[in-house]
Amino acid sequence: MGALSTSLIANGLTTAQVVALSSTQVAGLTSRQIAALTTANLAAMETVDFAALKTATIAALSTTQMAGLTSSQVIALTTAQAASLTSAQVAAMETVDLAAMETVDFVALKTSAIAGLSTTQFAALTTNQVAALTSGQVGALSTNLIANGLTTAQVVALSTTQAAGLTSSQVAAFTTANLAAMETVDFAALKTSAIAGLSTAQFAGLTTNQVAALTSAQMGALSTNLIANGLTTAQVVALSSTQAAGLTSRQIASLSTANLAAMETVDFAALKTSAIASLTTAQIVGLTSAQVVGLTTLQAASLTSAQVAAMETVDLAAMETTDFVSLKTTAIAGLSTSQFAGLTTNQVAALTSSQMGALSTNVIANGLTTAQVVALSSTQAAGLSSRQIAALSTANLAAMETVDFAALKTATIAALTSAQIVGLTSAQVVGMTTAQAASLGSAQIAALETVDLAALETVDLVSLKTSAIAGLSTSQFAALTTNQVAALTSSQMGALTTTIIANGLTTAQVVALSSTQAAGLSSRQIAALTTANLAAMETVDFAALKTATIAALSTAQIAGLTTSQVVGMTTAQAASLTTAQLAALETADLAAMETVDFVSLKTSAIAALTTTQFAALTTNQVAALTSAQMGALTTTIIASGLTTAQVVALSTAQAAGLTSRQITALTTANLAAMETVDFAALKTATIAALTTTQLGALTSNQVIAMTTAQTAALGSAQVGALSTASLAALATDDVAALKTASIAALSTTQLNALTTTQVTALTTAQATALTSSQIVGLATSSLGAMETADLRALRTSGIAALTTSQLSALTTTQLPGMTTSQIAALSSTQVSALTSTQLASLTTAQLAVLAPSTPLVLDLNGNGVQTLGVSSGVQFDIFATGKAVNTGWVGQGDGLLVMDRNNDGTINNGGELFGSSVTLADGSKAQDGYAALSELDSNGDRVIDSGDAAFDKLKVWVDGNADGVSQADELLSLKDAGVAKLNLNAAASDINSNGNWVGLTSTFEKADGSQGAMADVWFQTGVAKSAELRDKVSGLAQSINAFASAPEAAPAGGKLEMPAQQNASLAAVGKMVDVLKGFDANGNALGGSALASGSQTVRAPGQVDSGSNGFLAMPK
């Protein structure tokens, strides 16, 4: 057997063979051979054979072989075999096999093998096996085995010795259930250190019996953590008084509030005073009322202020009186308001003086209950400090018994707050001693309720300090009886505040005042009176007021005065009124003021009157105003306050004193109401200040009443504002006094409103001031009434603006008086408007400025002499000055009589025509065309024909294109023109042809013996009227006069003679001008063609409109 290899053993040996082995054979197997056995073969080995294996062979078994052992084989192990097992082999054993091991064998296992057991293995051990473990084996148990393998039954099976041998860490590894299952005797055998090492969960899991079984040493070893977090309420209840008494201060302090509250009263009473003193405030709060009641006197005395402060009110109230009294003074002082409020009246009544004195103001204010206050003794009340009494709530103070209140020290009374004073009952106030009343301060008196103050006896009221009286509220003062007010001393009256006067003093109290009291009122006090109260003051009292007091009255107070009070005012009082006060007087009161008082008012006060007040004044009052008072009236009063009746009542002196600003403030109605004598008294500066609106409202009587100086003071705008009626009412000297600027400002309506007498009264300067627009707007009657000097003063621009109707209205006296500049300013339209009578009145100088030229024109076509206006655009050097000018021109079909004097084949200028530009043989200029032609009448027969030497030199210029330039084919000889004879016997004419005057006319004889018209035409030109031209025109005028007055046929002679009469009638010229009215400025017929009617055309007798016209010219 010994020679069998391990390979044969492992792979060859069958199970049956193993079973067949004898004990001897098995005993002979080596460790290597037995280790080679398969687990199945080893498990098949008979128990007797297995028990025969050597211990060394057993020790060589593998863990797999160990796991394969049968329970029978394990049971069969000998003690020696069991003792040889290694930790690994034991750990490999199945739990059922291990649990089957005999106790003696199990105990033989090595300590390390026991320590190597798994928790499953250990849990499978029987209680006998566990109970058989030696101290060494128990000590080798790991905490893991303890925690996870040890079963409750095994714990119960532990012996006291085993329990005592457990280490702290092993005990700490116990589950709470296992630890709780430990028998009390065993638990009590645990080491102190083990107890101390318990976790809070373990300790909490202990049974009450286990806890109750703890020794004093074990109890003392409990950590504060265990106490705080492990000890359960039931465990606390289970503690014995001895155990409780053994608890240290730290342990007791670590008790939870619930656990402490669960402690039995007898146990709590067994706590040391030091332990009591170590209780936390939270623990104190958690105490039960029974525990508090169970406190010993020593325990109560050991309580700290904080602990007492932490006590619940119900617990504190449950404390026995002897225990409560034993509390420290500081503890009493530390009570909260709710704690104190929870005290019983017996507890409060038992407090000692020191304890009462220790009460905080907070406790007094917020903790002391009404019932507790009532329970106070007089001694306790008398012992309260000022601060404590001041802290009492109003309700508590009011609940204090009268006898107790009367026991309060005066200093304590003085310390009462306003709120406390307000809360006092009437009985308490009435019960106050005189000393107490005298100790009250102003604020306290001010806080007394009105009903209490009214109930105060007069002797007590009089004893009040002046400052206290001053401290009364308005409602308090208003509650005083009239007797109380009437009893006030002068000093007390003087102490009354303006607020009391204003809001507290009642009407009845004011009526109750004596004259002495009224006279003693200060300005500030009287100013504080309400309007109703002041109005209620008796007249005699009001009259007693000082003037300074009167001056202090507000405007509202003044407004509230009664008429009787105003009437009753002394002169000094009235004189003391300020401007603001007077302005505040009601209109009825002001109107009721006596004249002597009214006159005494300050000027500034008068000036401050409102418009309504002033309007209410009587006419007598207004008439009595002094100059200074009148001068002080504001423009607002004048404008809105002064009534029409008052204006009428003004004296002349008052009117004369009005300033410019005042007069301008007058309404138009008031100004119009002013008497004429007063209006005439106004200063010129005042008149000058009148607005245009005011001037427009003046009555005719007022205007008539104005002085010349007043009229002269009027400005342009003012005059412009005068109504036409007012203007027409002005006297002529007033009109003449108007400024030129004022005249210039008159509207045409105003100008036309002037009477002819007023227009005649205008000065030359005033006439000069008239503008063009004014002149053109003048009525013909006004223009006709103007003096010659005034007309002469009119501006040329104004003359140029005159309408034709206005020009027609000028008289023959006015026209000659006009300046040549004025005449020169007339347009052709205006000139055309002049009547023959007017033209006849013009002077030579006036006519000269009209600047006409006078060539002879022949009517060649038999339709009369026709001309073109100056605006037709023809330019010709008609004045022979070397410069062509715009000029009127011969009409189509007619011709100019000409003579080419320089033989250049061209008609160069007016000197080659026959007119005023021709130079005569004596070097002078011809006065007209006929005068120029007469010089060629060599035989003096008053006819120019072939019998005259120059006849063949004459030509007729027919300017067919009207360009003012002679063409060879436009110059016809007289023969070619069919002209045989020219008649020099001219007559004045009155024809206007397109603005040109046909001044003189005669005839010419044609070759067939018929006659045509020849005329000296005054062409209008666009040139300045020079002196030379004026001379020419003068000659023309003389010629016209001469021809107008000459006999039918001039005597035969070589040339025309000028008549001697220079002032002969120009009736014919007047007719000519009348004809001019039918033409516009351009010579165009108005309302029809002159050619159409033919009534104003110069024709020879029996001529009809046929042929053409041309110039008559004579070549040299």
Briefly say what this structure is.
The protein has about 1100 residues and is mainly alpha-helical.
How would you sum up this structure, described in words?
- By secondary structure, the chain is mainly α.
- Among the domains are: 472-586, no CATH class; 609-689, no CATH class; 836-1114, no CATH class.
- The protein has 110 helices and 15 strands.
- Strands 1, 2, 8, 11, 12, 13 and 14 form a seven-stranded antiparallel sheet that branches. A two-stranded antiparallel sheet has the order 3-6. The protein has a two-stranded antiparallel ribbon with strand order 4-5.
- The longest helix is centred in the C-terminal third of the chain and has 19 residues, at 1027-1045.
- Mean pLDDT is 87; it is low at 1024-1038, 1044-1097 and 1101-1116.
Major sheet summary line: 7 strands, antiparallel
Nearest-integer average pLDDT: 87
Proportion of beta-strand residues: 5-15%
The coarse silhouette is: elongated
Count of alpha and pi helical runs: 110
The rounded Rg comes to 77 Å
Helix fraction? 55-70%
User: What distance separates the N and C termini?
Assistant: 203 Å
Number of E-type strands: 15
Which residues form runs of ≥5 with pLDDT under 50?
Answer: 1024-1038, 1044-1097, 1101-1116
Secondary structure class reads mainly alpha
Features:
mainly alpha; disordered C terminus; 1116 residues; two-stranded antiparallel ribbon; 110 helices; 7-stranded antiparallel beta sheet
